[in-house]
Amino acid sequence: MLKRNFVMNWIHALCVTALIAGVVPKAFGQGGNNNDNNNNNFPVAGVEVNAEGVLRVRQIDANLINSQRQAAMKSRKGKVQTSPMRKVSLNRLEQAVADSLAQGKNLTPEMLVMAGLTRVEYVFYYPETRDIVLAGPAEEVQFDAMTGRWYGLASNNACVRLEDVVVALRTFGPDGKKPGMIGCSIDPTQEGLVRYQQFYSQLGGNVGNLDLTEIVRGFRNSLGMQTINVFGVADNTRFAQVLVEADYRMKLIGIGLERPLPTMKPWIDRVRLGGAANALQRWYFVANYDKVLVSPDGLALKLEGQGVKLVGEDERVDQQGNRISSGKVDKASQGFTEDFTKKFEQIANASPIFAEMRNLFDLIVAAAYIQDQDFCVQANWDLGVFGNESILPVANYSAPKQVEPAINVVRAGSTFMFPIGGGVQVSAKKILSGQERVEDSTVQSTREGASAPTHLAEGQWWWD
Fold this sequence. Notes:
By secondary structure, the protein is of the alpha+beta class. 33% of the residues lie in helices and 22% in strands.
């Protein structure tokens, strides 16, 4: 029997965000052979986007994915070996890519996954050779055709992707244009929230007497389609896909539709109702580094810390459908966001999309630092084919605009709370100029210890 201060029969509803699928550019096929039929239009996990930009979620059996992954690990390994510190020269890689495209060849798997990088921890510039370098841990890699992802065989960490690097470099290009916030949001329309309020009022005190399916259908119809916004980068890129999918998966975890960890208690298991009937919960990812270390000479940068934090905020909806921030976070939402942040590494290992999102955070900061320090100008590099969409297309995915609401329902009362808003927000300018930035001579020593690539073979663009 429930305690008296608990409300009987309550309903939780979630207006779902969504993933993105699209056409894979020829240059960014699976790699490994020159058969175009094997290199285009491979499935992107869990979604499809129609011609009108409406997203539909497709389900893929996680057990099937895992079994195929295990089989792949036993039968095949990538050409790139594991390394605690791999260095990738961006301008040498660009030249290798340009040569491959000029010869009509597909890009190699090593190119597609940045020689197996699973995270970008350093940015180096070597004036003597004019190399702009990204560095970090790397692994042997494997392509998962079920999800369209590359991952490290040893750790299952998501790999850094070349097409995401290209998007980041174009966003913070040599032209000096500095974008503001980069990210995404998936939100109900104001008209939908007005209809929601009207439907809620019509229910009155009859919730316990109505069929649950009828209530869910009423909420779904009243809320209508949700709007997807991507800002700072083109919405028809894989870069945008990762941001939106991460937002979607996070919300599924929040309402208990996905359980990546047995010890992860979702918001829906924490919440205690009794507040205002129009209460909304807003959750969104932000970049969060412990330190951003910069060498005294400015030629090196190191990112330290997890890099990702989930935060929340309460909102209210008035009769006109306006969302009003309360500036507060309820205990259930706070507990969920803090637990998610604390267990991020474990969650990212179980759900690689979050590791992919973090890779984008790292790339945003790295590209912004390259721009701030004028490394491209110093290297006399205009990005070459990396800056040419007609030669190296990255903005040819189907751009999502709307998504239907999905609802998870639990009986227990007549109050309604919605984790309805959220998204992803990254400000490179804030990160590079904030209190996390620290001048540190050890980063300079690390760059110097890595040595300039003066003895690489012709066409070689990475080294350990």
